[in-house]
Design goal:
Helix content: 40-55%
Number of strands: 14
Largest sheet: 7 strands, mixed
Structural class: alpha/beta
Strand order of the largest sheet: 4-10-9-8-7-5-6
Oligomer: single chain
Length: 404
């Protein structure tokens, strides 16, 4: 076996399909978000504006967050010292879990090292805890959910995206007394649409199923206290397990689940992805708790965020650009070709100082490649003007036929 050539061939295939990913070397400027410094391959340093961050409210730069982190590192040092089961549980982790349980009005919460691991570990473990479990997964669920469901090694069915009639057809076909779990997201981050939360809860009641809701692109930025779409719609009590992240609107890293104490305790006691992983550094837990608590009373930021997103959509549409309609803060710009998408984002960065990553397969289906814009309350009107002008120029130069 020629191992080296096998790896080369794998990368060559990705390159040939036009979806080879290049990471921009950025350094954010504290206190100036969304501005950053871009170091080019030649070693030059140039100013750019970041338009694709999931730090939706700029909390990664917030003084209350960075202050809590500095204090924690002064108090206890850097790492947690091990897994939660051995030496890695600190009062920072315990307090953060209490804050997250309160956020979602659940009895308990459990921290993971990322949202990906929270989904993968929890869903896989549910399949081991509940013999005969049948999982029903929305067709556009995140890769972490898909991997978790695969790891559950149980019967599974994929229902057409947001199609509750198809979901009910699948539920009807199973024995009423069979254990079931319906898994979906609240905000789908690439298309910007919202899952049919209430209808899914109604079906869960009718067919005796558990409900699992991924709120990673909604926590912090929807609901009166930032509890997500389920809080906004008055449905938190109807979801058995709510999964979220600390790496997006809260500005740090980590993931979690919130649920009844029996569910959380069972996952805590059985999930390899929790048991065998070094826990989050205390400084991260301290910063995350500060962010969560701040945003519980920071509804003005959520209102500003929604207003900025609506304004950007309006301006892009007025310019005749192919912005995809969404009902959330996500602002996707259709391109439809991976090579073209990369060429356009390169032009935005190199010629206009605007940083947007191309979104290609496997993140989105082939033929739906796009740029994904995420405006924040910190993107001002002058940045909007510069973006719309640059986008118009780049589309005319590279994809004129795609402008409506």
């Amino acid at each position: 076996m020629d191992y080296k050539n096998a790896f080369k061939a794998s990368v060559a295939k990705v390159r040939a399909e036009g979806r080879y990913r290049v990471f921009a070397n950025l350094r954010r400027v504290k206190g100036a978000f969304p501005r950053a410094k871009w170091r080019t391959d030649d070693g030059d340093v140039r100013d750019v504006v970041v338009w694709c961050s999931n730090d939706y409210l700029g909390m990664g730069q917030s003084a209350c967050v960075t202050g809590a982190m500095k204090q924690a590192i002064d108090d206890v040092g850097a790492g947690a010292g091990g897994t939660r089961n051995i030496s890695g549980t600190t009062n920072y982790h315990v307090e953060l879990e209490a804050s997250l349980a309160d956020l979602h009005q659940k009895e308990s919460a459990l921290l993971f090292t990322s949202g990906y691991i929270a989904n993968q570990a929890t869903l896989a473990t549910l399949g081991q805890i509940l013999p005969g479990l049948i999982i029903y997964s929305d067709a556009l669920n995140h890769a972490s959910m898909i991997e978790g469901i695969k790891g559950a090694k149980c019967e599974k069915h994929v229902w057409r995206h947001n199609d509750v009639e198809h979901l009910e057809e699948l539920l009807k076909a199973a024995p009423l007394d069979a254990p079931k779990l319906i898994a979906l997201e609240s905000v789908y981050s690439m298309d910007g649409d919202v899952g049919p939360l209430e209808a899914v809860c109604d079906l869960a009641d009718k067919y005796n199923a558990l409900t699992y809701l991924d709120e990673v692109h909604a926590v912090g930025i929807y609901g009166l206290r930032g509890g997500g779409i389920a809080e906004r719609d008055g449905l938190m009590h109807r979801f058995d397990i709510i999964e979220g992240t600390l790496g997006k609107a809260y500005g740090l890293m980590g993931g979690y689940i919130a649920a009844d104490k029996e569910i959380v305790d069972a996952i805590r006691s059985s999930a390899p992805g929790f048991i065998f992983t070094t826990s989050l550094a205390p400084t991260l837990a301290a910063g995350a708790r500060a962010s969560v608590e701040f945003l519980k009373s920071g509804h003005h930021l959520r209102e500003e965020h929604q207003a900025r997103a609506a304004e950007l959509k309006r301006r892009l549409k007025a310019a005749g650009l192919p912005v995809m309609d969404t009902e959330t803060h996500i602002v996707p710009m259709h391109v439809g070709d991976p090579v073209l998408c990369k060429r356009m984002t390169d032009a935005l960065l190199e010629e206009h100082g605007i940083y947007v990553q191309p979104i290609n397969y496997p993140t989105v289906p082939k033929g739906t490649e796009r740029m994904r814009l995420t405006p924040t309350p910190l993107h001002d009107d002058s940045m909007f003007d510069e973006l719309v002008e640059a986008m118009t120029t780049v589309y005319r130069q590279h994809a004129a036929t795609k402008i409506a």
